[in-house]
Each structure stands twice: as structure tokens, then as C-alpha cells.
Specification:
Layout: H1 24-38, E1 56-61, E2 66-71, H2 84-93, E3 100-105, H3 118-123
Parallel strand pairs: 2-3
Antiparallel strand pairs: 1-2
Length: 127
């Protein structure tokens, strides 16, 4: 499992045992490739990708390389609420080695501007 926070890779430090049956180097590659894939998905109303916006709350990779993603929206009434999980599933599903992807929208904790990365704040001129 990786807790997705902008600017982090989500893999365990080298001195800790790998709790996954997936070899550590493969898990690191999968994690990096999943983050890269998430950065291709944009909220259509905001010119920043969903990863840098802080909309990805959790990414779990199980031993069979199935990926479960908890994500949120900038607002509960977002007009693309029904579409965005599919965009995320398609993007992450294209990563080599990923078997299946399920994205789920959650609203706890609620999203706010503090979840955005520095890159997102710069892009939106929100200092």
C-alpha cells in the first residue's frame, strides 16, 4: 500500500522489510509508473493533474498486482464525478504489470486547498 501524497514515491524505506510478495524493485517501479499515470488525468475545470491537486488519497497494490484507489473530488457536486473514476482506472490500467484497477470516490476527509502540491499551487497561482 502507498499513501499517495504529492512529492512522495510511496515505497517503504530500504531498511524496512517489504510487506508485499512483489519484489521491492518491481513494487517501486509499479508505484512510480502508477503515479506517472495518475498525473495524466486532469480535472477538466482545473489545469492541474489530479495527483498534484491531492485528489488521490490512497493506492493499494495487492500481491496479485490489482490496484485499489481511494480518491476524492474538489467538490461533492463535481460534474465529472461519474466519469473521473473511469479515467483513473483507464490511466492506471495501462501501466505494465497492473492486473486490474478499481477507483472509488470518497469524501472523508474532505478535500481542501491544503492537499495541493507546491507544483499545483504554482500552476494555479495560489500562494
Amino acid at each position: 500500500m502507498m499513501d499517495a501524497a504529492p512529492g512522495t514515491t510511496g515505497h517503504a524505506p530500504d531498511n524496512l522489510p517489504n510487506p508485499s510478495a512483489i519484489p521491492a524493485d518491481e513494487l517501486a517501479r509499479l508505484t512510480d509508473d502508477i503515479i506517472t499515470a495518475l498525473k495524466t488525468v486532469y480535472d477538466p475545470e482545473i489545469p492541474v493533474d489530479i495527483y498534484e491537486l491531492g485528489l488521490i488519497y490512497k493506492v493499494d497494490i495487492d500481491d496479485d498486482r490489482n490496484v485499489a484507489i481511494d480518491m476524492t473530488l474538489t467538490a461533492p457536486g463535481c460534474p465529472v464525478a461519474g466519469d473521473m473514476p473511469g479515467w483513473v482506472e483507464n490511466a492506471v490500467g495501462s501501466v505494465a504489470g497492473v492486473q486490474s484497477v478499481k477507483a472509488k470516490i470518497v469524501f472523508d476527509p474532505p478535500w481542501d486547498h491544503s492537499r495541493m502540491s507546491e507544483e499545483a499551487r504554482m500552476a494555479l497561482n495560489m500562494w
